[in-house]
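I am sending you the entry underneath: sequence plus fold tokens. Let me know what the token row says about the fold:
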Amino acid sequence: VIPNSVTEIGSEAFWCCSRLKNIVIPDSVTEIGDEALYGCKNLTSIVIPDSVTRIKSKAFWDCANLTSIEIGNSVTEIGSSAFVLCESLTSIEIPDSVTTIGNGAFRGCKNLTSIVIPNSVTEIGSEAFWCCSRLKNIVIPDSVTEIGSKAFWCCLRLKNIVIPDSVTMIEKDAFSHCTALKKIYVSKGKVDYFKKLLPTELHDKIVENNKIIDGIVVIPHGVTMISEKAFYGCTEIKGINIPKSIKTICERSFYGCIGLTKIEIPEGITTIEKRVFYGCYNLKSIVLPDSITEIGEKAFYGCMALEKICVFKGKKDYFKRLLPAELHDKIVER
């Protein structure tokens, strides 16, 4: 246990402390130094408090058994090679205070399957996700302007990527050896623009997002199901009109719809499948009807701005059984 008088965990402070399993960082600490916990191979979880503003270079390099990390809401910089070879990490949520993901930040995190990049990040550094071989989908927020060299090099399972209009530079080998890549989603009318930024061998993978009218998705009455990935990565969606005929919202239907701020699910819908609103990090409120009987795994994962989940009076305990514990304090009766 680090005492409250400590303000900085210095460079190499716990370098190669291979028997270290747990560490409590007090909220007096503002910085985690270079190689501070380098090679702490038995460290399994860590909570970085809101007081910390910087995670410096190689801070958690080769913490091979680190399965859980919670990054505080004041961190602005994830330094170069900060989490290299953290091979047990499967997911990570980057807070919306972060502006820079440094070079090689998550290099070789081979079991990382999902990551939510917030709308505060402006640059994805070189080799940031190099050889994250289990990463399947990525939504780049519309704050990002540059994607560095080999940023997603050899992400062998990466199938879909959403690139916003804000991006002005993509290093030519940013997506090299992404052998499973099927689609690179861009905004309407931007295919030719991104052909200038991306290498020739990727041009046939560039496709326009689903067509949206004035930012609003209008689903016609009579439709009973919103199909899997129907509006995947449609960053320009601002609202959705869902008719009462809909019964099921399928997996990843609105994955990465970062323009979405609120949604009302009408009475009649029974199922919200897994990861439906995954990565909708500007979603602030959602209304759920009594008819809901199933909410899938990580349906609202990465919805970092979510303030309230509105349910009918007397239904709070019912929805606590359907929703994960971390969302229980967001449930309000109306």
User: Anything to note?
Assistant: The chain has a mean pLDDT of 90. The chain has two helices and 26 strands. The domain at 211-334 is CATH 3.80.10.10 (Leucine-rich repeat, LRR (right-handed beta-alpha superhelix)). The longest strand covers residues 183-186.
